[in-house]
Amino acid sequence: MIEKLLIITTGGTIDKIYFDDKSDYQIGDPQIGETLQAMNVAFDYEVNALMRKDSLHITDDDRAAIRGAIEASDARHILITHGTDTLVQTAQTLEGLDGRCIVLTGSLFPARFRDSDAVFNIGCALGAVQSMEPGIRVVMNGVVWQPGEVVKNVSENRFEARAG
Amino acid sequence: MIEKLLIITTGGTIDKIYFDDKSDYQIGDPQIGETLQAMNVAFDYEVNALMRKDSLHITDDDRAAIRGAIEASDARHILITHGTDTLVQTAQTLEGLDGRCIVLTGSLFPARFRDSDAVFNIGCALGAVQSMEPGIRVVMNGVVWQPGEVVKNVSENRFEARAG
Amino acid sequence: MIEKLLIITTGGTIDKIYFDDKSDYQIGDPQIGETLQAMNVAFDYEVNALMRKDSLHITDDDRAAIRGAIEASDARHILITHGTDTLVQTAQTLEGLDGRCIVLTGSLFPARFRDSDAVFNIGCALGAVQSMEPGIRVVMNGVVWQPGEVVKNVSENRFEARAG
Amino acid sequence: MIEKLLIITTGGTIDKIYFDDKSDYQIGDPQIGETLQAMNVAFDYEVNALMRKDSLHITDDDRAAIRGAIEASDARHILITHGTDTLVQTAQTLEGLDGRCIVLTGSLFPARFRDSDAVFNIGCALGAVQSMEPGIRVVMNGVVWQPGEVVKNVSENRFEARAG
Questions:
Q1: From the CA of C149, how many Å to the nearest CA of chain D?
Q2: Which pTM value belongs to this model?
Q3: CB 3.0–4.6 Å: which of A61, A123, A125, D30 could bond D9 by disulfide?
Q4: What is the chain B residue with the closest CA to C21?
Q5: In the Cβ-directed half-sphere of C24, how many Cα atoms lie within 13 Å?
Q6: CB contact under 8 A, A20 and D109
Q7: Which of C14, C22, C23 to mutate to test the interface with B (most CBs of B within 10 A)?
Q8: What is the pLDDT along chain C (164 residues), one digit of tens a residue?
Q9: How many Cβ atoms from other residues are within 10 Å of residue D46's Cβ?
Q10: D143 phi/psi in degrees, rounded to 5
């Protein structure tokens, strides 16, 4: 068993909720804590709700802040939830944090949707982060990808192997 | 990415459905294929629906059949769904299948329940089987356990670290 | 708006929960209160959890008790949840309670199932009980039936118009 | 039993779906047909998908079109799904359609959300439309309201009795 999992949340579709009075969809509180509680998980974790952004709005400064949050922690296992549009890009900026097992995931449908992929992806990311060698992985569509081998296919709304 | 995942289903709570005309609860078709399809997974898999049993009724012959199904396949990554009461026991009988990554999981609530742990556990098992070194793991309650370190706490209805 | 709704629960599939440690399905606490709270209903109600029985085990004495609970109350609007197998039969024994609007409903799948008809049926029963003339109605499969015109088709697992 | 139900859909939150590629929320196909099919309803209905609008964008012309669709049909029972912000206002413009039972409903959360009120409200509207005298009713939060007695409390995100 791992000692303690550090969870960093940054926003994205996974945390989107719906405000009827504005007929709008905004990023709410991180959903992952609620999910882990409902699933009655048997490990310790800490949630660092670092930012609440659509991934299209994540800047280089934000990516530096994510990296800083990892460096500031002594956790060896880190799970990051992130919007899907630039998830792979953020993953690539986290190279070189030696000795850490880092997994990034998100969801294509908000966690509050009936058939959302959020709970499945969180599960898959947890399974990966506990089993992998130190390094960085992206978990989407049931696959544990290396950052350099995966791309989001926006029109098909899924992650797939990068061509060529 | 893994080449192909072999999924062996054996029954258990995860596959239980409800028959109103009998006011009864029986093991139905494996739910995992439906889940993987709904999650739009980006890997190949094959489902071998080997048996439909409550895990309390799994015999030594059944365990030999599970082992045989693995040996008969050239898949290196294997996911087994199983009832929770004897899941750990079955895991222990699969030792010695060199070069295979084998993960057993199940669920404490039927997959068709609203807040079932089934989708989460399947996700977690998938993340583990793709990331681990060859060997055997049990995935329940968000943890990737070694077979010898975990036990089902029946009264609390959860898996936890074996005492001592 | 109605003044106050009396809800009498008797058990049945709608209230069935799953006990993993017994691999069994039993009648739990009434689910209707939880549903009405989640739906944030704008009326007053009182839940009388009268019994917890499969409807195949409901006796003439039980039916007398249900009738007694109605007579003992000054509520004019009554909603009864009941197992589906003898729901129509119980409805027929409640004739002659003048001046009361009484609706019986249940569900073909436990309320805790993902695609259960429970929430839909409770909604439909509420709409009927507030809108009808005094009398008795059975609500199942989206129809507000008179007790004499409906029958459960067990093999098809649905309620339908009684032939002839 | 009613002969045939005419269902008119106009859009609103109930039909909102989520487009990840636009990080946006738009009105999709009417959800009510899918719901009625899933609930295996035992009555005939026809869905007229008249428009797809947020109720804040429903104009007087749109309301005339809704009224026209009712007048053009020989159905005596009509169910209308509508955005919640101006649902009551639309209800009030349908006065004077003699001999028709008309119920308007919507939902505060999209039908695709896990704990949406959509299925409950549709059930409640169906129960009302089958049981009421000719006239117009608004169904929200479990209550069958007359159009003049109800108001949406936007900040509390619920419908309630109009003050004094």
A1: 9
A2: 0.87
A3: D30
A4: B154
A5: 5
A6: yes
A7: C23
A8: 788 999 999 999 999 877 655 556 678 889 999 999 999 999 999 999 999 999 999 999 999 999 999 999 999 999 999 999 999 999 999 999 989 999 999 999 888 888 899 999 999 999 999 999 999 999 999 999 999 999 999 989 999 999 86
A9: 12
A10: -115, 140
